[in-house]
Amino acid sequence: MPTSKRLNVAVVGATGIVGQEMLKVLAQRGFPAERVLPLASERSKGLTVAYNGSRLSIEPLREDSFKGIDIALFAASSDIALMFAPIAVEAGAIVIDNSSAWRMRPNVPLVVPEVNPDDIAANEGIIANPNCCAIPLTVALNPIHKKVGVERVLVSTYQSASGAGKGLVDELEDQTRAIAAGSEPQANIYPYQLAYNVVPGGWRPEADGYNEEEIKIANETRKIMHLPDLRIAATCVRVPVPIGHGESVFVETHDPLSPEEAREILGSAPGLIVEDDPHAKLYPTPNGVAGKDEVYVGRIRKDPSTARGLAMWVVSDNVRKGAALNAVQIAEKALEKGLVKV
Ligand SMILES: NC(=O)c1ccc[n+]([C@@H]2O[C@H](COP(=O)([O-])OP(=O)(O)OC[C@H]3O[C@@H](n4cnc5c(N)ncnc54)[C@H](OP(=O)(O)O)[C@@H]3O)[C@@H](O)[C@H]2O)c1
């Protein structure tokens, strides 16, 4: 990492699923941190979190938490990000935020390092980490777009419980245990029982029958790929899987692209692994990619319903590439580009 100074890094929401993964990723990638400060709510005061073989004491998030901090990785709610990101920037930190609070603001870069790393430079202190489905989707679409142009995208998601935070992972486990024990499963966090079920909702409803997750995926994909007029629609579904989001993607391209060519382009693109041999039962699954860094693509085939269409199945670890890893990769890029004030 091209910096002579070791950095002070804060992780806001360090007790959550994404925050804990951030701490793991920082250590695994040898991020040049002098000090890591885990911040959470008052509820977590006195608790510790694991980092690089030791335990760090959680501090409650306060207005003066960012004194001396160079990089603040936010993994808390949008409300917390709206309130505290400007405070962190004012204190001299660069903020990389995982919530959706800042993503669509014109002066905030929304970055997937494999797709639009140069957008980072235009930051005014806050860089946004995209939605956990938009990240793998754009990693997979971008190489196709560069080769033949992407004109239309239809995506259906199969999203794991961890995408909704620690609470739903625990609820899914409790419900699964209850069903196995013959007792009534309780649904408190989510509007429906998730165990033994598939739920086409749970996100805030928006206009025209879509929900906020579906609208985020469409808008964020357009912003990341610099395709403001991209024709794209999403259907989001929650499935009873702990980690790993799947996406069934139909793409219409400007020029024709065969499945063989697509496999070749995607297979050599950064951050992507093609696992595609149905005869050998080779295709990516959430269980298979949990804990992995790359976005996996399989089931690449021609869409026979249109002249220049492909269908594919995209899977990635939503907590890692969909959140924590992508955020740390943004921090690494910011360092590489000399954008962190040290
Ligand atoms: N999970 C994913 O796959 C994913 C992917 C992309 C983006 N995101 C986004 O990342 C963010 C975190 O998600 P998550 O899944 O990690 O949620 P989570 O497991 O529910 O964790 C939430 C974190 O926020 C902290 N927090 C809550 N209220 C706070 C307060 N008043 N002050 C300071 N910290 C507070 C919690 O601390 P306490 O333990 O003290 O309450 C906890 O550390 C969300 O914006 C989410 O939309 C998540």
Low-pLDDT windows of residues: none
Give the rounded overall mean pLDDT: 96
Strand residues, percent:
15-25%
How is the largest sheet built, in terms of strand order?
Answer: 5-2-1-6-7-8
- Give the biggest sheet: 6 strands, parallel
Number of helices in the DSSP assignment = 8
Considering DSSP H and I runs of 4 or more, what fraction of the residues is helical?
25-40%
Distance between the termini: 13 Å
Order of helices and strands: EHEEEEEHEEHEHHEEHEHEEH
Radius of gyration: 20 Å
Characterise the protein shown here:
- This protein has helices spanning 17-28, 78-90, 134-148, 166-180, 212-224, 259-267, 286-289, 320-336; strands at residues 7-12, 33-40, 48-51, 54-57, 59-60, 71-74, 94-97, 126-128, 150-159, 231-238, 245-253, 272-274, 295-302, 309-316.
- By secondary structure, it is of the alpha/beta class.
- Helix 1 (17-28) packs across helix 8 and helix 3 crosses helix 5 (212-224).
- The two termini are 13 Å apart.
- The model has no long low-confidence stretch (mean pLDDT 96).
- The structure holds NADP nicotinamide-adenine-dinucleotide phosphate (NAP).
- NADP nicotinamide-adenine-dinucleotide phosphate binds next to helix 1, helix 4 and helix 8.
